What does this fold into?
Amino acid sequence: MSTVPKARSGRGVRPLRFTKDEYYRMAEIGLFHGRRVELIEGRLMVLSPQNAAHWTATERARECLARLFGPGYVVRMQGPIDVGLATEPEPDLAVV
It folds into this structure.
C-alpha cells in the first residue's frame, strides 16, 4: 500500500525539474541563501560544506594533474561545467 498522495491526474507525486535558466534565476533572487547548490539532470542538489582537509587534498590533486597534463590543458577546481540544458555540475576537479 502506497503512502504517497495521488494527484488528480492519478500519477502521484512527481519531482519538479528545472532548466539552467531557471536555476540561475533562482540563484539571482537569493533562493539558495548562500548554500552550495548544483543542478544535476534538472534536480537541485545541496552540497555539504567544504572542510580544510578536503580543500587541501583537492588542491594537491589539481597541482599533480596540472604537472601530468602539462601545457595546453587547464585543470579547473570546483567550477561549473556546461553539459546540457538541465545539468551543470561543479566537480572538484576537471581537466579541460
